[in-house]
């Protein structure tokens, strides 16, 4: 199920439905409402969702967002058994909130249970891969939902903009937990179960999981075996009951490992996107052939991202960058949304290869902002203070690696997290590296084991065997380790260099995504910036007092993704104020 919006006070019919429809009508086949003395609930159902997205049994009503694997004695273990799985979760949600949730519901999800006699419970996954947002209205009402802008609108906060959060999003591409673009609307903590009462009050929160910094394995090989078993087990559970599944493939190695873990009796339809049939596409196609999968290439139009700005920004909201929803449009055009499950390889670099570990020892009491001179200096200082406060909180349970995990946990702190927030609303997405066993292992091994693919390669090498001869789209062979790749990568560079000279493609772009500066300087993007300058929208208060042309010149000094984020925020802020 895609999204829910709930109020502990009974609202007039159509009010919550309208708030969700404002942002999700174009990706929903229906938006249902329920009302009672317990409050009001609206639920948006996407094309790939089951017909019955609500479970009503034994005086309780429950909603499950996402399609996790459910474990438990006598309960379904397969993701494909939709009805049984939802009823199993329904029964779990009614139980004591101090349940070992990480051992029961696996991968990204958010859940809401409502006791029709009053009160209920909210539950988030271990990293908030599906985030939940909460606002208090007066003293006796809570508004809870999975779309931040819809929550703000239902709570009467949509016209308010928190200038510190707006500056934070424009500068850093994420909003420091637990804040959002809207004052009074906060992100619910990850890995948390909490009951609420009919009067809008909360019981004590049960934080059932935190990424505590500890060493749970004696050797890299021991951790690697556990990691491989976790990936293989998650893929098998996700594929169970499905004769055919989808896979978002690339020219890299993360999704290739997922492909290698797919059971042999399951057919795979792989998909790859790019501007043209470049090396990224050709490597993905070669990998698919090696594993007996089909591979469909989705060529992007020049204005693919700019055309998608408004519909994608509405769909994911203001909490993360719309640019990362690469599959917009392809979900229909390539038939991705019709598949029972679509596997992905996102976050392996982040969790398992120390992508966000500082290159050198960093000062935990110092946070550097990129160029943002057109943002008011007092707001920049407030952003730094928020970031440092969040880092200090993380350091309470990750004292040595807080500067790495501040970009990982909760998942909304990842600047590319909109990939998941978008995909889950477009098709039945399942990210393998978001499995509980993978994330908990990533939190439980030394950072040093992750460098140079040491842990990842030891775990995944058997899954690469069928494609050992297919190189990465970059300069290595995934099947081989760091030392073996030194001479191999040199030969690969020479071979590819000669081929580029022979074909006249010396300066051709072989990466999966376009140059973002080319996107932001396109005629379509510049037209949007002229028609809706951010300093003439509700974002005006974040900028220094200067003429528009000077502000525009300052913004053009930014990284292009920050410019595009500013375009997104300007659009959503105007829409919220309507």
If you had to describe this structure to a student in words, what would you say it looks like?
- The structure is a single chain.
- The chain is of the alpha+beta class.
- The protein has 21 helices and 19 strands.
- β4 (54-57) and β5 form a beta hairpin.
- α1 runs antiparallel to α3 (148-154).
- It is globular, with a radius of gyration of 23 Å.
- The model has no long low-confidence stretch (mean pLDDT 92).
Number of helices: 21
Physical arrangement of strands within the biggest beta sheet: 2-3-1-11-10-12
Distance between the termini: 28 Å
- Sheet/helix structural class: alpha+beta
Low-confidence stretches: none
Number of strands: 19
Estimate the helix proportion, in percent.
Answer: 25-40%
Task: For this entry, give a set of tags.
alpha+beta, six-stranded antiparallel beta sheet, globular, 21 helices, single chain
Q: How do the helices and strands line up, and which of them pair or pack?
A:
Blueprint: E1 3-7, H1 15-24, E2 30-36, E3 39-45, E4 54-57, E5 60-65, E6 69-70, H2 82-93, E7 105-106, E8 110-115, E9 120-124, E10 133-137, E11 141-145, H3 148-154, H4 163-172, E12 185-187, E13 192-196, E14 206-207, H5 220-239, E15 244-248, H6 254-261, E16 267-274, H7 279-290, E17 294-299, H8 304-307, H9 309-316, H10 330-333, E18 342-344, H11 348-352, H12 377-395, H13 402-405, H14 418-426, E19 429-431, H15 436-442, H16 454-460, H17 482-503, H18 516-520, H19 523-531, H20 548-555, H21 560-577
Parallel strand pairs: 15-16, 15-18, 16-17, 18-19
Antiparallel strand pairs: 1-3, 1-11, 2-3, 4-5, 5-8, 6-7, 8-9, 9-13, 10-11, 10-12, 13-14
Helix pairs in contact: 1-3, 4-12, 4-21, 5-16, 9-21
């Amino acid at each position: 199920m895609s999204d829910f919006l709930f109020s502990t006070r009974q609202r007039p019919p159509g009010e919550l439905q309208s708030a969700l429809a404002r942002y999700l009508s174009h990706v929903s086949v229906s938006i249902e409402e329920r009302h009672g003395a317990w409050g009001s609930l609206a639920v948006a159902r996407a094309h790939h969702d089951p017909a019955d997205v609500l479970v009503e049994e034994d005086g309780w009503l429950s909603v499950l967002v996402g399609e996790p694997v459910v474990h438990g004695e006598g309960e379904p273990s397969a993701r494909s058994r939709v009805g049984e799985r939802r009823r199993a979760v329904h029964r779990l949600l009614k139980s004591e909130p101090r349940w070992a949730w990480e051992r029961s519901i696996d991968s990204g999800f958010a859940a809401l249970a409502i006791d029709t006699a009053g009160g209920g419970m909210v539950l988030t996954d271990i990293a908030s891969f599906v985030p939940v947002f909460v606002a208090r209205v007066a003293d006796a009402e809570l508004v809870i939902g999975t779309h931040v802008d819809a929550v703000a609108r239902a709570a009467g906060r949509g016209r308010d903009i928190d200038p510190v959060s707006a500056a934070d999003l424009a500068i850093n591409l994420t909003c420091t937990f637990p804040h959002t673009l809207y004052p009074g609307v906060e992100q619910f903590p990850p890995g948390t179960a909490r009951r609420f009462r009919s009067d809008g009050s909360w019981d004590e929160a049960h934080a059932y999981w935190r990424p505590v910094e500890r060493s749970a394995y004696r050797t890299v090989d021991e951790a690697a075996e556990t990691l491989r078993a976790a990936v293989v087990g998650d893929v098998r559970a996700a594929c169970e009951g499905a004769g055919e599944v989808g896979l978002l493939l690339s020219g890299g190695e993360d999704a290739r490992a997922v492909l290698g873990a797919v059971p042999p009796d399951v057919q795979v339809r792989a998909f790859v996107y790019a501007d043209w049939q470049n090396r990224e596409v050709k490597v993905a196609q070669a990998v698919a052939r090696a594993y007996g999968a089909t591979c469909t290439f989705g060529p992007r139009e020049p204005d693919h991202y700019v055309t998608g700005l408004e519909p994608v920004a509405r769909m994911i909201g203001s909490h993360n960058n719309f640019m990362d929803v690469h599959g917009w449009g392809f979900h229909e055009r390539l038939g991705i949304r019709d598949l029972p499950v679509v596997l992905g390889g996102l976050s392996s670099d982040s969790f398992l290869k120390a992508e966000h570990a500082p290159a050198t020892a960093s000062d935990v009491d110092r946070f550097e902002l990129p160029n943002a001179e057109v943002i008011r200096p007092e707001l920049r200082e407030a952003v730094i203070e928020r970031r440092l406060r969040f880092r200090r909180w993380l350091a309470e349970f990750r004292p040595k690696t807080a500067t790495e995990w501040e970009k990982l946990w909760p998942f909304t702190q990842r600047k590319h997290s909109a990939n998941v927030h978008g995909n889950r609303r477009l098709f039945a997405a399942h990210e393998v590296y978001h499995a509980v066993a993978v994330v908990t292992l990533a939190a439980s091994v030394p950072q040093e084991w992750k460098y140079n693919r040491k842990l990842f390669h030891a775990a995944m090498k058997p899954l690469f065997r069928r494609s050992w001869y297919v190189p990465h789209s970059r300069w290595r062979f995934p099947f081989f380790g760091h030392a073996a790749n030194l001479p191999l990568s040199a030969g690969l560079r020479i071979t590819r260099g000669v081929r580029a000279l022979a074909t006249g493609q010396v300066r051709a772009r072989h990466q999966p995504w376009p140059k973002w500066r080319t996107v932001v300087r396109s005629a379509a993007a510049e037209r949007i910036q002229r028609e809706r300058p951010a300093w003439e929208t509700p974002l005006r208060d974040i900028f220094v007092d200067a003429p528009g042309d000077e502000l525009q010149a300052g913004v053009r000094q930014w990284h292009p993704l920050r410019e595009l984020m500013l375009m997104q925020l300007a659009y959503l802020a105007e829409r919220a104020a309507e």
